Amino acid sequence: MGNYSHLHRDWIVILLALLAGCGLSDCPARAIGGRPFHFPADAPAITNETKWIYRTDPATGGQVHHYRTPPPTYSQHCFVLARTAKQFQLHARFNPLAATLSAEEYRVRTRAVLARSPRLAGVEAGRIEIPGFTNLHEFSATYPALLRHEAGGAWRSYLQRGNWRMILPFTRKGQDAECRRLMEALHRGDVSVVHLTEFPRLRINHAVLFYDVEETPDGYRFMAYDPNDPHSPLPFRYRRGHGFNMPPTPYFLGGPINVYEIYRSFCR
Q1: What is the pTM of this model?
Q2: Residue 87 falls inside a structural domain
Q3: H or E segment at 2?
Q4: C-alpha distances in angstroms, 202 versus 115, 205, 237?
Q5: Which of 75-96 are b and which e, b meaning 16 or more Cβ less than 10 Å from the residue's Cβ?
Q6: Into how many domains does the chain fold?
Q7: Mind listing the pLDDT tens digit for each residue in 244-257?
Q8: Which one, of 62, 53, 4, 59, lies nearest residue 253 by Cα?
Q9: Residue 255: which domain range?
Q10: Hey, which residues does 54 pair with through a beta bridge?
Q11: Distances 183 to 25, 51, 192 between C-alpha atoms, Å
């Protein structure tokens, strides 16, 4: 997805958010436990293409856009790819020393991984083995069409059940608490899919995967896998009392954003 101000009117976004919701009260996070995430090895090698080409207007400093030509073949799947990265992190085990399988056998195993919950990990012994490959990046580069098909359509982004949260106010105190939750999860070895939003402003509606964090003099620096650019890590700065800040990208001018974790509890 990346930027969605040109996709839907406000009322459509609100309607889909309410349909996807389960209520207005938060649910407790469920600890999942995990193993270290290595970028880019543990990220899909598939790019989520934006539908538009963005540039900065030198006269106004604002963002302008035009349709990508030719049209993208795989777009609006940022939530899907971020969720997929987390599911493989939780439920798959790669074994490069084992014999390779047929494409159909890999499809069956990929489908089994993606059928498991992104909210709760299984035991190490129960991971689904993906033989013949070292990591998800290598596997998805070899079978991109297979992974795109099995991961699901763009509708999974719009009907993600945590979308209800973005229509409620975000406070600095609330973002402080979200920062602490994300930091604690990462210190446990977990990864977190986060929804980036400015709602009711419509400059961005995007999902990334936070996989690392370090303390800075005035807060924290989170590192993320960005489905729009699977080859370069995306840093996010958090300043205490000020909230999250996203750097400029080809699809976003950069600046303050609101962040909340999804795929972490029943309500999200």
Answers
A1: 0.83
A2: yes
A3: none
A4: 32, 7, 21
A5: bbbbbbbbbbbbbbbbbbebee
A6: 1
A7: 999 999 888 899 99
A8: 62
A9: 10-262
A10: 65
A11: 22, 33, 10
